[in-house]
Amino acid sequence: MVDTYALACNACGRCCNSAPTLSLRELFRHRQRFVGALTIHRVPKRRIGERWLAGGRERVLDADDVAACDALADTLFHRVGGARGDWLALTLQGYDYPSLGRCPALAGDGRCSVHADKPSICGAVPLDPMLPDRLQPQVLAGRRAEAAWLGAQCIVDDARAADASFATPL
Known about the structure:
Elements: E1 5-7, E2 21-22, H1 24-29, E3 35-43, E4 51-54, E5 57-60, H2 63-76, E6 78-79, E7 87-95, H3 120-124, H4 136-145, E8 155-157, H5 158-161
Antiparallel strand pairs: 1-8, 2-7, 3-7, 4-5, 6-7
């Protein structure tokens, strides 16, 4: 299985399955597109030996994986319950009806209408911003295997990305 991937967003809208998390500046910049909502959710602490499945492969988290997850969570979130506790994420969300199952910035043709000035979280997709870099290859392998991503052409193995014909013009 490939462990090295390249990303090339072509604004196809396949990854836009929910409203994005926004900074306050982004929310004001896109105020005509998104309704702002304050969201709060628990981010569980990863444990050594925890089994994590992505990309058709199971990974048992080791001490280095857990330490990397903890460092990222400590940077991004507020810890509750002391050093052994979980984290609390308090974020701004570009709210829309969850039943739509898509971002409110998608145009009628299903493509991103704010691609040129997209929120920073959108630039991280299809990576998982809640996981450290060391786990991202498995995230990408999982994304490539999901039906929603078929034909998206934004996640390719590193060798294929060197081909200039890979890039899809916007």
